[in-house]
Backbone:
């Protein structure tokens, strides 16, 4: 591709019609049916836009060269470097320094709007962001609008991390619109809504205690002492947000990643040669059940669900069992529902490892289904063929209600699966929906 330049800066495209036709075709392309490459899983899954900018030299250079963003970067670096002295033991002071104000968000958005016309940024949006599926609900947007919306999501998610894990205040969770609607926006004057999973998305320390304030002071001092890692305008607030998560022990989003080279490696290798026509279903999705008591690895109800799943697997209803459930009950449990189910399938029931897929991060039934749909798309399992959702009869009945899908739309802005027929009290047929790939802009533990 030939780019003409004036004074060393992009000025125009020698073959502009072909270039924009190329971008138009890319915009219509489906997300890649492949796992994402994760360098720093907790950050990458929560802030895919920002991680991708860090890892793309041409875009990184554009960001650093923009005068408005350079001004923001200098201000944020200075605020972080000075915070241990200026804030001392006042955690809310650190939070205020690192949060993004509405004016700062708008200033950066305007910069992204300007930069979207640059060919390097256009290639980044169309060649990295859009095919990732992480912004799937914005797939109909043109490049500039996708970039602007992705930035606003990232900025408000950093604010959410700071509000929740620095000062213990849950920011308003903005309900998502139906799939055809605009991106989530808070209605003016709307009452604050609790975060999803309020019983479990908890801080690990008393954020009002002197001990926690000392930890924040030490963390801010260490993060702020490395200016080379803070060159991009968003990096001071990003690093501060991620370290807050880790202070509280919340690395759940990155645990067991990359799954495709670890827990799911054997099954993924078998997917490519699976004779799908020999089975009525592609996968049996087994929903986890977390124990409510400390020290219990696998809940009794979870084991009973496995008994059902193994029976249907041995009847050759599907070539794979997909077990889903994260580190949920009780708070800060060391046990993942899916990992414990996989262990029981291997040791108690003798199921081969290459027949088991795991999602060790889902924290609710809604995300059980969303994450299962994601694995189906990313691993190249035929998405036009039916799968089975398997759970106990009481749980299964709730999934079939209109209220459940309404909750999905309220939480995500879309339905993660299309429910089809019920074939037993324990089994619902489904097909996955592509919007499930979209990264959650509010959930920090299972985005």
Residues:
């Amino acid at each position: 591709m030939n780019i003409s330049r004036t004074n060393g800066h992009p000025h125009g495209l020698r073959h502009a019609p072909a270039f924009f036709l190329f971008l138009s075709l890319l915009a219509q392309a489906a997300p890649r049916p492949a796992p994402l490459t994760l360098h720093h899983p907790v950050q990458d899954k929560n802030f895919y836009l920002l991680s991708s900018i860090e890892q793309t030299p041409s875009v990184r250079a554009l960001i650093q060269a923009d005068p408005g963003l350079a001004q923001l970067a200098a201000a944020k670096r200075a605020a972080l470097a000075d915070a241990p002295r200026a804030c001392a033991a006042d955690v809310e002071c650190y939070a205020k320094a690192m949060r993004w104000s509405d004016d700062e968000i708008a200033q950066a958005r305007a910069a992204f709007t300007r930069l979207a016309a640059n060919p390097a940024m256009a290639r980044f949006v169309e060649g990295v962001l859009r095919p990732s599926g992480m912004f799937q609900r914005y797939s109909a947007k043109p490049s500039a609008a996708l970039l602007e919306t992705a930035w606003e999501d990232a900025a408000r998610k950093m604010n959410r991390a700071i509000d929740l894990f620095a000062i213990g205040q849950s920011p308003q969770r903005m309900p998502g619109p139906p799939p055809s609607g605009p991106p989530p926006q808070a209605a003016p004057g709307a009452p604050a809504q609790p975060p999803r999973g309020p019983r479990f998305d908890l801080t690990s320390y008393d954020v009002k205690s002197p001990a926690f304030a000392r930890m924040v002071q030490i963390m801010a001092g260490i993060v702020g002492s490395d200016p080379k890692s803070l060159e991009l305008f968003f990096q001071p607030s990003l690093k501060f947000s991620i370290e807050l998560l880790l202070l509280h022990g919340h690395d759940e989003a990155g645990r067991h990643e990359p799954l495709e080279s670890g827990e799911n490696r054997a099954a993924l290798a078998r997917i490519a040669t699976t004779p799908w026509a020999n089975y009525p279903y592609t996968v049996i999705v087994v929903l986890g059940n977390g124990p409510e008591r400390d020290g219990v690895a696998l809940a009794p109800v979870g084991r009973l669900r496995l008994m059902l799943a193994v029976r249907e697997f041995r009847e050759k209803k599907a070539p794979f069992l997909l077990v889903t459930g994260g580190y949920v009950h009780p708070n800060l449990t060391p046990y993942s529902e899916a990992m414990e189910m996989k262990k029981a399938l291997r040791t108690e029931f003798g199921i081969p490892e290459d027949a088991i897929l795991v999602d060790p991060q889902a924290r609710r039934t809604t995300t059980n289904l969303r994450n299962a749909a994601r694995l189906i798309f990313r691993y190249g399992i035929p998405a036009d063929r039916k799968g089975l959702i398997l759970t106990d009869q009481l749980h299964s009945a709730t999934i079939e209600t209109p209220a459940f899908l309404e909750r999905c739309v309220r939480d995500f802005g879309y339905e993660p699966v299309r429910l089809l027929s019920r074939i037993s009290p324990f089994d619902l047929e489904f097909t996955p929906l592509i919007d499930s790939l979209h990264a959650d802009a509010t959930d920090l533990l299972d985005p």
User: Anything to note?
Assistant: The chain has two domains: 23-168+203-252, 258-437. The chain is about 45% helix and 10% strand. Residues 1-28, 171-201 have pLDDT under 50 and may be disordered.
